[in-house]
Write a structure and sequence with these properties.
Elements (H helix, E strand, L loop, with lengths): L2 E12 L1 H11 L6 E7 L5 E7 L2 H7 L6 E10 L14 E2 L5 E9 L2 H10 L9 H13 L5 H11 L2 E9 L5 E6 L4 E5 L2 E5 L11 E4 L4 E5 L4 E5 L5 E2 L4 E2 L4 H5 L6 H7 L1 H14 L3 H10 L3 E5 L1 H18 L3 E5 H8 L8 E6 L5 H12 L3 E6 L5 H5 L2 E4 L12 H17 L10 H12 L4 H7 L4 E6 L2 H17 L2 E6 L16 E5 L5 H12 L4 E7 L2 H6 L2 E5 L3 H23 L18
Parallel strand pairs: 16-17, 16-18, 18-19, 19-20, 21-22, 21-23, 23-24, 24-25
Antiparallel strand pairs: 1-4, 1-10, 2-3, 2-4, 5-6, 6-7, 7-8, 8-12, 9-10, 9-11, 11-15, 12-13, 13-14
Helix pairs in contact: 3-4, 4-5, 8-14, 8-15, 9-14, 10-14, 10-17, 11-12, 15-20, 17-20
This protein binds 5-amino-5-deoxy-1-O-phosphono-D-mannitol.
5-amino-5-deoxy-1-O-phosphono-D-mannitol (M6R) binds next to helix 10 and helix 17.
């Protein structure tokens, strides 16, 4: 998830400082490289970019000296293609007449690059943002005007992205959008466009939101919106933004956690499209399939995704995979591992010390080291033999939410591919997540009340929902400071059942295939006075046996566990607020644990 910003002013002026500051405001999204381009009135383009942080690259490459009548800044968050100077954005076309930068993923990048090379264009990087520029160049070279060229390029570029482009010798910038966010700002004597509202607000509070399938043309004193479909003009009222900067950064949500929960459908859609087009999946699947022993290794939430992943791999591909907490991997399997084994290391940050320690041991034993990781340029991403990105963008809230969702999605995708199954079941996930968020929120009241004052409780799951119960319990512990234990439902009777007395709440996460088994477990607790809160698909037997039921959309056994985590995230969030805590930054915890 990169960040882009472009500005158009009336006449040539220093733009380096404005672009650097816009880059600083985009930096909360996370990034590995930064680039600035300015286009001056005399037709020249000044492009400076490199790997590093905004301030450091801006000083080293002297962004402050850049001037022009138009400017673009981009912060790159690498998915595929190493963080490098050449892959950093913006990019030039073959002749250096066009310059542009994107946010998002162009999923047919590899095919497009081959076409561009065959057509004689100069392709300099492996970054998909460069494909956007050549896709426009292709039609400009055929004599199309910019808007017509963009309309045609839009048809060629598959994926979710937004793109800003400028042409030497003109006065305007262009931007277009398919999937990723894009917003226009209208100031006095200047217009700007960005992936992020917060990068615009210090310049102006008058904005226009661009929709998918729209092109925006920016001059210093006005903007024009046109439909990609037929080039026709669109009328849209300018909005005045009254909210505070902080609230805008949170996308209008009260906390980053809530924002990130709501981002799950979009993040899932983007990852699914990325995986469908990825050439990294097949070799990764092959490596995992051929391993003597396959270990899925992570900590905290990432470990819970490994639990779910191990169920998917066994069910769909007949592949046994051992989910293991990273430090326990060393303690338990350190003397049993060898060159024929493979470890899939799972981490949002890619910097968790426990995970990196385990990776180092695996490497010392000659094991294959694969990664599933969100943060580009992280140690896990750089040092694994092969990785898949989680493509969630920056997760600011300490409790992991959208990264868990995409870890689960990635595991399901790998398992489907390894088992030779179609992957289209996953195409339903984004809409089902939307529906889940919308429908479970109003159902949470009774569960919230039942758990409000409790200092200890249990979350129970079975099979695929075992990892989900553990994940829900971790969310609750992390941000309410209450004790909550997630365990296998069948284990409850082996000890914890003794805790149950009148009104004691137990949350059951029930997969559609496990209703009979879980109904027994529910009754073991309710007959002793326990209060059963059940999360599952609509089912009369569950309804009849539960005190409170949170109904999930009908999604079937593969997707239902992923949906089930959503009410648990929301419940933890609400209970945290009810107790007066800040769910984004729980006490004693940090987002990335780089210590032993
Ligand atoms: O960055 P990682 O995925 O390696 O982090 C592992 C855990 O520290 C992390 O998942 C932690 O449990 C979360 N804050 C839970 O929400």
């Amino acid at each position: 998830m990169c960040g882009i910003f472009g500005i158009v002013v009336e006449r040539e002026q220093p733009l380096g400082q404005i672009l650097t500051e816009a880059g600083q405001r985009l930096s909360y999204r996370g990034y590995d490289s930064v680039g600035c381009a300015t286009l001056s009135g005399n037709g020249t383009i000044d492009l400076r970019k490199d790997v590093g942080k905004v301030d450091e690259v801006a000083t080293r490459l002297n962004f402050g000296a850049m001037s022009g009548q138009r400017g673009i800044v981009q912060l790159r968050w690498a998915t595929f293609g190493a963080p490098s100077q050449v892959n950093a954005q913006p990019h030039l076309d073959s002749d250096g007449d066009l310059v542009g930068a994107h946010n998002g993923n162009v999923v047919n990048n590899i095919e497009l690059r081959q076409q561009f090379i065959a057509e004689g264009m100069t392709v300099r990087s492996t970054n998909d943002g460069e494909s956007c520029i050549h896709a426009v160049e292709r039609y400009v070279d055929r004599g199309y005007g910019m808007v017509e060229a963009i309309r045609s390029a839009y048809q060629d570029l598959e994926g979710d992205y937004a793109f800003i482009i400028g042409r030497a010798g003109e006065k305007q910038l262009y931007a277009f959008k398919k999937g990723s966010g894009l917003v226009v700002g209208i100031a006095d004597g200047a217009t700007c466009v960005s992936s992020d509202l917060p990068s615009i607000l210090p310049l102006t509070r008058r904005i226009l939101r661009v929709q998918d399938g729209e092109i925006v043309i920016l001059w210093a004193d006005h903007v024009e919106l046109r439909r990609v479909e037929d080039g026709s003009l669109i009328e849209r009222e300018v909005e005045e933004i009254a909210e505070s900067m902080e609230s805008v950064r949170k996308g209008g949500y009260a906390h980053f956690m809530l924002k990130e929960i709501h981002e799950q459908p979009q993040a899932a859609a983007e990852l699914f499209h990325l995986l469908e087009a990825s050439r990294h999946v097949a070799p990764m699947v092959e490596r995992m399939a051929q391993a003597r022993h396959l270990y899925l290794i992570g900590c905290g939430t990432s470990y819970h995704a490994c639990l779910l992943g191990s169920v998917y791999l066994a069910r769909l591909a007949g592949r046994a995979a051992v989910p293991v907490l990273a430090p326990q991997f060393i303690a338990q399997y350190g003397s049993a591992i060898g060159e024929e084994d493979v470890g899939l290391f799972v981490s949002q940050s890619g910097e968790t010390k426990d995970v990196l320690n385990a990776m180092e041991i695996a490497r010392q034993h000659g094991m294959g080291v694969l990664g599933l990781v969100n943060v580009p340029g992280s140690t896990l991403m750089n040092e694994s033999e092969r990785y898949l990105p989680l493509a969630c963008g920056y997760e600011i809230s300490v409790p992991a939410t959208k990264t868990f969702m995409n870890q689960g999605l990635a595991f399901l995708y790998l398992a489907l591919r390894m088992g030779g199954h179609a992957t289209d079941v996953l195409a339903r996930l984004p809409n089902l997540l939307e529906e889940t968020i919308a429908t479970v929120d109003p159902q949470l009241g009774p569960a919230e009340q039942a758990l409000a004052d409790r200092q200890d409780m249990y979350y129970l799951g079975y099979g695929a929902t075992y990892g989900i119960a553990l994940e829900g319990a971790l969310k609750l512990k992390e941000i309410t400071y209450a004790h909550c234990e997630g365990i296998l439902s069948t284990e409850f009777k082996h000890g914890p059942l003794s805790a149950v007395q009148e009104g004691y709440p137990i949350v059951f996460v029930v997969g559609p295939e496990d209703v009979s088994l879980l109904v027994s477990a529910i009754n073991e607790t309710t007959t002793r006075g326990g209060r059963a809160i059940v999360i599952g698909e609509k089912n009369p037997r569950l309804r009849a046996n539960a005190h409170d039921m949170i109904i999930l959309p009908q999604a079937g056994p593969l997707l239902s566990p992923l949906l089930a985590v959503v009410p648990l995230q929301l419940l933890a969030y609400r209970l945290s607020l009810a107790r007066g805590y800040d769910p984004d930054f729980p006490r004693n915890l940090s987002k990335t644990l780089t210590v032993d």
